[in-house]
Structures are given as C-alpha cells and as structure tokens.
Amino acid sequence: MLLIALLLIPFATAAVSFFVRRRAAMEAANLIGFGIVFLAAVALAGQVLARGTVSLANGFFYADALSALVILLTAAVALVCSTYSIGYLRDDQQSGALGDDASGTEQLARMRTYYTLTPLLVFSMLFMAMANNLGVMWAAMEATTLASIFLVTFYGKVTSLEAAWKYAIIGGVGLSMALFGTLVAYYAGHRLPGSESLSGLNWSVLAQHAAQLDKTSMRLAFVLILLGYGTKAGLAPMHTWKPDAYSEAPVPTTAILSTALLNCALYGLVRFYILTSRCLGADFPGHLLLLFGLLSMGVSVPFVLVQKNYRRLLAYHTIDHSGIMATALGLGGAMGSLGLMLHMTFHTIAKSLLFLCAGNVYQHFGTDLFAKLKGSVLRAMPLTGVVFLMAMLAIIGMPPFSLFQSEFLILRAAFDGGHLLTGVLFVLFSTGVFTGAILHVGGMVLGPGGETAVAARRPWRDGSMLALAAALVVIGFWVPAPLFQLISNAARVVNGQ
Q1: Burial grade of 183 (CB within 10 A; 0-12, 13-18, 19 or more)
Q2: Residue 382, SS3?
Q3: Positive or negative CA dihedral for 121, 124, 314, 351?
Q4: How many other β-carbons are positioned within 10 Å of the β-carbon of residue 280?
Q5: Ranges of each domain in the chain
Q6: Helix H segments across 100-214?
Q7: DSSP string covering 462-488
Q8: Radius of gyration of the chain (CA)
Q9: pLDDT in tens, 274-322
C-alpha cells in the first residue's frame, strides 16, 4: 500500500493547504506531508531492494529499482524545498514581493497558490514514476506541466507571464510529440496477445515482448519520444524555455524543476530506450541520444561563458547536465548506465543546493545580476558564500566531490566503448562550462569590494541549505550501502537486465 500512500499524501496535502486560512497551517501541512512522503519513499526503496519489484492493481502501479530511485530523489527534494520555502516565502511576504495589499489578502492568496500547487506537482511526478501504463505515464507528465506553469507565474510580473507562456507552448508541443510516440509504440505491439486491452500499453508487458514489436513503428516512436520527453528534460534545441522559467519561478519551485522534474523526464526517456534497445538493438537509440546529449552540452557552453544572471547560469548548467545524462544513456552498457544513475543522484543533491544558495543571495541583494553583486556575497553572507562556492565546485566535477566520480565513469564508458569523438567532445564541453562557472561564481563570491554588513541568520533557509551541504560532502566519500545497491539495481534495469 506504499504506492497508494505516496499518491494520497501529497494530494491530501494540497487539499488541506487549499482550504486552511492561515499561513502557519499551510506550512505545517506541506512540511508534515512531504516528511511522510519521504519516509514512505524510503520504505518503498527497502521493499524494492528486498523483492525486486512492487506492483498493485494487476500491475497498474509498478515500481522497480529505477522507479524507486526516482521516487526517493523526488521525495527528498520535495522535503528539503518544503522546509526552505517556509523562510523563503516569509521573507517574500515581509519584503512585499508577494504584493503590497494592506490587509495581506493578496499575500495569503499567493501563498495558498504555492502550497497547493507544489504538492500537486509532486503528486504528478510520483504518479509518473509508478505508472506502469505508458499512456498514464504521459498523462502524469502533462499534469506536471499544468501545475508548474502557474508556479512560474507566481509573482505575477510581465516577465513571469512571458516565461510561463513560452514554457506552455514549447512544453505543449513537446508533450504532443510524446503522446504521438506513445500511440505509435502501442501500435508497434498491436499484434501481441492482450494488446486490445489497456494492459497493451503496460511497460512491463511491452518490455517482456519487445523483440516482437514492429521495428519500423518503434523507430518512429523513439524519435517522437526523444523530442517529446527531451523537451521536458531541456535537451537542445528544445531547451529555450528553461532559462526564462528558472529565473522567474520561486526558488524552491526552480529547485524542484531542475532536479526532480528533470529526473522524471529522463525516466520516461529511459523506459522507451529500454523498449527500443530490446527491439532494434542499442545502436539506433544510442546514436540519437549521443547526438542530442552532446548538442545540449555544446549549446550550454557559450551561454555559460557570457552569462550575466546567476539564476540563468544555473539553468544553462542544468541543460549541460541534461546533456551529460543523455550522453551516458546513449553510451549504454554497464558502465554508462551506472554513470547515469550515479550522476542523476549526485546532480539532484548539488543542483538543489545551488538553487537554495541562489535564493538566499537573491533575497538579500534583490538582484540576480552578477554586475550588481560586485563580489560581496562572502562578506555579506559568509555561510551562503562558502556553500555556494563549494556546491559549484561539486557540480562542475571537481574532485573529491561525487560528480567527478560519475562524470569520470561516463567518460571512461565513452573511451572503453570506442566512442573517441564523444569522449573528446565531452571533455571539451565540460572544460568550457567549468571555465564559465568558475569565472562568474568565483568572482561573485570571492571578488573584491561590496557589502561588509553580515546578513541575519534564517533558520528555515540555512537549515535546509546545511542539510544538503552535509549530504553533498558525505556522499563524495561514502555512499550508504542500501542507496548504492538501489542505484546499481536501477542501472541494471537501464541496461536491460
């Protein structure tokens, strides 16, 4: 019943947040709800490790190691962001960022919007990860778009509406292609026994009979799915919505979009990659993924190098890492699959931490432009400055942090598999992103001049940031055995074992 609990709890949290009339009640509902969701996700991961797969309702709900890992990462990000958002939205309310209505009605309405839509967004992501039916999985991904669009417009600015409109149009086109790809995949298995029922779209059924799927249909299906779910993942050239949306949404929402939602989009891509590989062999989907993965890494380099806005910098950095994970999936094999799952886990921790640090800086200085900070972050915000720089060093793959390990594993998979050009371009593009990130963030944190007054402590925000920072440091040296086992099992699922 953990699968049902993981869906009912965030839905109930959204309902409670919508009907209560006090800010503290909304905060408590989200904090308690996501705390329970995280515990349920841990319990589900334990069950999957013990039993291999967990299913319910004749296989309608289905969780293997890959599903359990994505659910666990989603629940962890949601819990951290629910804690951080308490301090973040309180500061927004005090500063007038939520509106200057004297009675506080507008501020409370906007808080209700955030605390209602965020659990619905998490509900949709969890539903996608445990839906066995590929059509239901697509519908859940569409629901994430509906919830997150209104979070992008949270502040009601003209730029927020423009970002949400771009997100809606590009995301809508992408998900339309994913829907067509799903229908074509269903047609590819129309001759399988039981294909006339809804179970004909169950991933577990299609994976079992993948060799019997129509090959021409599966080629078309994978191309459409790559374009569709690749749009949600931010793969180039379908990436243009990300910088606008990430710079306009509330920072806790951005942290969820850049990690948990990215993981879900890649999850959908992985499910179809497994089907296509078993039907056509790994070369056809692998070459396409390498193309889009390296293109995404390459496109992000010039934008990172010339970037003037640190939130947009993190958005382009997410596009780069989306490309890294697509490249790892395209390389395939035991090493590429393990590198993908490790990188997904490590990136979730580091990128969430970076956006929380960016939120602290934005609320203190009231700007997200590098030029207006003038190197004052470390002086004005010593704790945030140190953690920001540490997280940036981690995300660009500096040893001894964990992302160095996953990127090195992916690079080794490229060279060991004979993909010499891929390996060279991987190093070249990673060097470009490394240079831009160090140049901008290093100057922002360590540069001369700026404020000397130290910012006041914010327990809710700083506590969330320190928890992630501690996890980032620890996981660079030691991955708990159950977590590593879950990651390894997920990699075996990706590798078709």
Answers
A1: middle
A2: helix
A3: positive
A4: 18
A5: 304-497
A6: 105-130, 134-152, 158-188, 203-208
A7: HHHHHHHHHHHHHHHH---HHHHHHHH
A8: 22
A9: 999 999 999 999 999 999 999 999 999 999 999 999 999 999 999 999 9
